Amino acid sequence: MSTDGSTRSAVVDLLLEEGPISASEVASRLGISAAGVRRHLDALVDSGAARVSSAVGPRSRGRGRPAKMFALTSHGRSRLGHAYDDLAGAAMREIRAIGGDDAVRVFAKRRILSIVRDVTPADGSAESAAATADAIARALSEAGFAASTRPVGAGVQICQHHCPVSHVAEEFPELCAAEREAFADLLGTHVQRLATIANGDCACTTHVPLGTPAVSRDGNKSASERVARDTDTSATVQPSPTRDRLRKEPA
């Protein structure tokens, strides 16, 4: 890859992981001139891969014109690894056609539990919950979600800067719902989804309050134990009441 291409990729990575972000912040992080960064940003905006917004809150400059902030668009994200979206979408539709909405929910739950299977559940303390949030972010990053955590007020936020299945999640919100439920079980507290890439936001953001009472439905079971439990439960075939009644009634 050319130096120009490498720089463009580095700019895209920063927009993915830190966006919305200003041109000066990108230049500072990459150690290149602001003029060079703006050239790449302008090209990304012109191609529809990035969008511009005005800074708000503490990131604004105060007096004068607000700084321009850059972030990837859904078109820009589509270049990062959605090659199997059509196949994944078709597979999910087939699951729904065969087993209904319940089958989709079971699949979505198994999928996220397989990603976080090695994460140790929090023990009820704020410190443990924060450590578990970090472990969840690491597990998500290994699965391609480019995740991180950041402290916010009396809690922490899990930020997924990329979603390999965002286009599929637009049609099947069960995928997002299963993630939130798995996070709540591991963290032992209610969590709140503030934003999702599937809804057009820059990142999937989950707020985790620290120091609140534990509400885990599965106690301290590991994710791998819950995967095994769900597999056994879903594989059990319940006897048909009609068949039993016919067997007992005289001819």
Automatic annotation (TrEMBL):
Task: Name the Gene3D superfamilies for this protein.
Answer: Winged helix-like DNA-binding domain superfamily/Winged helix DNA-binding domain
Q: Which SUPFAM superfamilies match?
A: Winged helix' DNA-binding domain (SSF46785)
Annotated region (Disordered) at 210-251
Q: What is the lineage of its organism?
A: Bacteria, Bacillati, Actinomycetota, Actinomycetes, Mycobacteriales
Record InterPro entries: ArsR-like_HTH (IPR011991), Carb_Metab_HTH_regulators (IPR050313), WH-like_DNA-bd_sf (IPR036388), WH_DNA-bd_sf (IPR036390)
Q: Give start-end positions of Basic and acidic residues composition bias.
A: 218-232, 242-251
The protein's organism comes out as Rhodococcoides kroppenstedtii
Q: Which CDD domains match?
A: HTH_ARSR
This chain belongs to which protein, by name?
Predicted transcriptional regulator, ArsR family
Q: Give the source's domain of life in one word.
A: Bacteria
